[in-house]
Amino acid sequence: MSKSSNLYRDILTGIFFIVGVFGFMSGEFILSTLLFGAATIASNLDFSGSFRA
Question: Which end of the chain is more exposed for a tag (fewer CB within 10 A), N or C?
């Protein structure tokens, strides 16, 4: 897996997690649950695979 792919995945996961925490603190529980789920999925995706059109 390339270094830039790991960096983008880590940034995306961090953004989802931080926004989810702020959403949880403000009382937006459904939104924060969706953001925590998105952070979990984004942290487990493998972006290094080749895709064919």
Answer: C
